[in-house]
Amino acid sequence: MFNPLPVVxxxxxxxxxxxxxxxxxxxxxxxxxxxxxxxERALRQGSARAADDFDLLVGAxxxxxxxxxxxxxxxxxxIPLVSGxxxxxxxTARGIRYAAPIAFGDNWQGHPIVGTIEDFAHRGGRLPxxxxxxxxxxxxxxxxxxxxLAIGARIHPEHxxxxxxxxxxxxxxxxxxxxxxRLPARHNVxxxxxxxxxxxxxxxxxxxxxxxxxxxxxxxxxxxxxxxxVPAIAIKPESVAAAYGLRGQLRTNESMxxxxxxxxxxxxxxxxxxxxxxxxLALASQVLVVIAVLMALLVGFLARARQFxxxxxxxxxxxxxxxxxxxxxxLLVAGGAALGLLLGYAASWLLMQWIAPRMGFAxxxxxGSEELLLASALAAAGLLIAILPAWLSLRRPVAxxxxx
Length: 404
Prior knowledge:
Elements: H1 5-14, H2 16-50, E1 56-59, H3 64-71, H4 84-91, E2 96-108, E3 111-116, H5 118-121, E4 131-132, E5 140-143, E6 154-155, E7 164-166, E8 172-174, E9 177-182, E10 194-197, H6 198-204, E11 232-237, H7 240-249, E12 256-258, H8 260-303, H9 305-313, H10 318-359, H11 369-385, H12 387-395, H13 398-403
Parallel strand pairs: 3-10, 5-9
Antiparallel strand pairs: 1-11, 1-12, 2-3, 2-11, 4-9, 5-10, 6-9, 7-8
Organism: Uliginosibacterium aquaticum
Protein name: FtsX-like permease family protein
Subcellular location: Cell membrane
């Protein structure tokens, strides 16, 4: 007898229930650890990508986290407004490509309407070509990839239903936007946003337009005496050095300036602590599962002592019997670890499908080196653990085994 695999497979068939329970326990223990690690990494990568369009944020003094959540992830909250003077100052500062006001307060069928400037709508030309064109005058809108509207469609914002503008002849008309462009997919919450000239958002709230009365201009330069406050200003600097210089200049009693990555790093640190705790708990559960499985297999092998004694009595060598027992345990542990790897990935992917719409950005789920190391370590431990039941079974004399 040289090939132990037929005997191993026969044993598996005779003990299907034990094999199934063992695989399930090991797979579950591995899947928990894999899902925790993969989901934390997916959340970290997805949130970082969603902040790529915001190099430097300026807001009124307050909570940096609240400013980032409101401006970057559109988790709209009531936050203090930074003064129009700061907007004028940043718009004329050296070293910037654009300083875009970000103004909220309106929506269409649940899609937030965001007032800004043309440069921010296409991120200073950094985005792939959009369908249609950017807005170039008041009353025009550029929509995100997930807004269910066609180019040329007209929409009436909620506040617009109760607000009327005067045309040049003095007649009142209901505020409406005409869709003139659609942005490429960004895989974040901005795919559901509607971007319009900030002047329209100010007008809806009966605020000055930032320009002389009667002017149809949109965007900078602003009239410093007629610029309302805004929740945030998104700045695109010309260089990294300019970004740090602007951040220093704009950290005053009237404004705060920050890199979203700074705030995210603090959140990641907290997430990392939680992940480490969950990983320790997952590792502890794996150890307990392996011990429980080992005890169950030891009891099972001791109960089958007669089977192994018969094999030895009919001529099977000690190495062959050792290989049979060692292979049975090793394959169970390694198979459970591999199955747990797949289950952990599937669980993380399903969880991402549920969380992503609520977070507002895509979370790329993948298996990394940490998850592979986790499963591989357990499989390697199984190869060592399998030696114990094999060795204990061979210690019993053949005669004693035949009497069992």
